[in-house]
Amino acid sequence: MIDAETTLLLAITMKNHLLLTLLISFLLSCAQQDKSPKPDLVIYSAWDPSVLNPLVALYEKKTGKQLQVINGADGILLVKLREESAATPADVFLSNDAGFLWEAWLMELLKPLQSQILSRNVPEHLRSSDNAWFGLSQRAMLVVFSKGVDAKSVVTYESLSASQFQGKLCLISSENGDSQVLVAGQLFHQGKKKSLQIVKGWINNLAMPPFAQPEKLVDAVKQGRCSVALLDSSVVVTHHRAGVILPFVWPNQETSGAHVNISGAAVLKNANYPIQAQAFVEWLTTLEAQTVLTHRNGELPILSTLRVKEVNWPNYQVDQTQLQTIIEKQPSAMKIIRKAGYQ
């Protein structure tokens, strides 16, 4: 920083008034930057701002802390974290997909936590084995169907590969993380050969190519262009709250339970404020935060004390398999997806 005496000498010797003006503006800018308050916590978030912003505002009001949020897609944020390495300003990583949290873990970007709060509030199957990442809300893959379909015929994911649904099934694109994790779950429970048969059956039964956007799939079901479809529960809940009722079934209730994916969080290994970061993640598992979070994102809470009336949660069974174990099969699941021709 240039001190006042040096500035004065420069001003006296400079004959160009434009340069003098620019110099003064620069110095004032530096001074303002130096005086601007630094955040108590920096969050890299792939969550929709409409979900996170109310939580941030509530936490800041509750604690007096100042939080800075950097928004971006999961993949872009991971690249950013890898490039920044130890110099990253980020303390917390928020993701919409267990697969990206697992990738961050593989890249050794995350800090395992010792926390009684997180161990108590987050079910064991929805966190990593070393407590480096945690699910904060979950969404189940449901079977939705149009009028005229017998709900008893769609009680499992596997049943959708039956010939009776040829030309009647709709799916979300395989580029969607939930689709990839679903196939990984099939691989875990059914094995490679059976899983390939199931996914090939789905593709053979498609009424139209997989949809990139859930909204388009919902429209197809409402219009009867799809008789049955796989759709995550957050989409079903959000539409029900908007008055659009989608008939659905919780699949695999007699076997593995409905498959789930998560929105989750992790404290970064190179966090500048790891204690504050852990406290924020812990708060996100409290009843206060869970109520706001699941109201905003339409997902299912991790706390069994909270209900989601639109899907009668938690009166149904979801897969209790360690989600990390399923995610670890995702690379193999991608091979099945490609071999089956799942676009």
Could you explain the architecture of this structure?
With 343 residues, the chain is α/β, with parallel strands linked by helices. Among the domains are: 4-35, no CATH class; 139-259 and 329-340, 3-Layer(aba) Sandwich (D-Maltodextrin-Binding Protein, domain 2), CATH 3.40.190.10. 45% of the residues lie in helices and 13% in strands. It is built from 13 helices and nine strands. Strands 1, 2, 3, 4, 5, 6, 7, 8 and 9 form a nine-stranded mixed β-sheet that branches. Helix 3 (49-63) packs antiparallel against helix 11 and helix 7 (177-204) packs parallel to helix 13 (330-340). The protein starts with a helix and ends with a helix.
User: Which regions contain 5 or more consecutive residues with pLDDT less than 50?
Assistant: 1-34
Distance between the termini: 56 Å
Total number of helices: 13
Q: Please report the first level of CATH classification, the CATH class of one domain.
A: Alpha Beta
Number of strands: 9
What overall geometry do the principal axes of the alpha carbons give?
Answer: globular
| CATH architecture group name of one domain | 3-Layer(aba) Sandwich
CATH fold name of one domain:
D-Maltodextrin-Binding Protein, domain 2
